[in-house]
Amino acid sequence: MNPLDLIEILKNHTVYIQTHNFPDPDAIASAFGLQQFLAYHGIEATLCYDGKIDRLSAKKMLETFGIVMHSKNDLWDMKEDDLIVLVDSQKLNSNVTDLIGDEVACIDHHPIFFSYDYQYRDIRPVGSCSCIIASYYQETNTPLSPKCAAALSYGIKMDTADFTRGATALDAEMLAFLFPFADWNL
Prior knowledge:
With 186 residues, the chain is of the alpha/beta class. Helix content is 38%, strand content 15%. It contains six helices and six strands. It has helices at 3-10, 25-40, 56-65, 129-140, 146-159, 169-178, and strands spanning 15-18, 45-49, 70-71, 83-87, 102-108, 120-123. Helix 2 runs antiparallel to helix 5.
């Protein structure tokens, strides 16, 4: 699908980007990268999750990159007609809490175990969800901040275990794409 189709679906709605429960660095980077992509195209989105952020690498990532994610317990104002984009997760999986909003889109790199009819679906067998989000910037020539490029690079690095687990050509291509933009001090 064309990433700009997602923009059209989300326009004029309250939007949430939800990761899997207990988000790891790839989920966090993917959500943050998508949030920045949507913001460039005029759509504000809130990052959310269920569970805890308990991995040291995930906690440090939020702190280092200044990423704000909200626990489902803090989403008292979410409504049924608010739109949810699932990243690094899929509806009906056991590691994703069904929030009150409407899951209209899914961007993920895991196999499909339960079919669901999203308005926008981008599920690819790659090593990291971060590389899918990075491809949105490349495909649409959307400007990329150094902080966002660094976060997406870190997501690719962590989910592929430094390219030793499940890495694909797209993961490598997207790391190469992100490299000149990224703030490597982060």
